[in-house]
Amino acid sequence: KPLMAGKKGIILGVANDKSIAWGIAKAASDAGAELAFTYQGEALERRVRPLAESVGSKFVLPCDVTDEASMDSVFETLNGAWGSLDFMVHAIAFSDKDELKGQYLQTTRSNFLRTMDISCYSLTALAQRAAPLMKDGGSIITLTYYGAERVMPHYNVMGVAKAALEASVRYLAADMGPSGIRVNAISAGPIKTLAASGIGDFRYILKWNELNSPLRRNVTIDEVGGAGLYFLSDLSSGVTGEVHHVDSGYHTVG
Ligand code: 0WD
To answer: pTM for the whole thing?
Structure first.
């Protein structure tokens, strides 16, 4: 029986076919999972809907994680249709791109709060809503980056938000573990996506990782998808609160 047969999950953060969340969605779908997708704004709906349909998904729902009612409605829909949930993929982040260059020192209060809200708190807000649906336990994953652990040029306030996100993973894992819900993060190496294009000198970061990582290349969304499948499936049933690097080994040398 396929690894994910009978499992139902929600994927938040597909913007297009380059998105990391799409790599994870493909891997889960190929392994037999049933998926629901969310999008933020009509422009992205036009990109997400055909992708969702290509993997047989019946649910393509609007969700803005800064809006409580919008999150409530997503989980009400899933509760009505499925009555339960096995996994959730959180692949959402945002910061003003004017502050993803230059110095962290110049971070404004308003962008600090917005970055933290969308990139960090949203995981907790969504976990609160997913938990009651994960009656037979479940698996939640989020996406993080090495800039949480070490200073990376231009990553700035997003690095601070990712550090808080990684700490959230540990606290959520502790809170949700007794209910059989696991919470983990994948720390992906740099990948050229819509979100990444907002980061200053991103091409240089890609090149630097390619030249210096143990594998001497960058990772693909399919490779992150493979790790995602491990965390979402019962293969990782004994693992929670983990930050797992899928970065060609860069974190061992950088
Ligand atoms: O190198 C990279 N691309 C890495 C990305 C390395 C390591 C980690 N990550 C993380 C990102 O920080 C993010 O958490 O992976 C996650 C997914 O990012 P991605 O695949 O690189 O980016 P993208 O395809 O752009 O998807 C992120 C999406 C948004 O797209 P845009 O480009 O419009 O920001 O997050 C969603 C949106 O679809 N998003 C929201 N969703 C709901 N409510 C919101 C919001 N308020 N804001 C952004």
So the answer is: 0.98
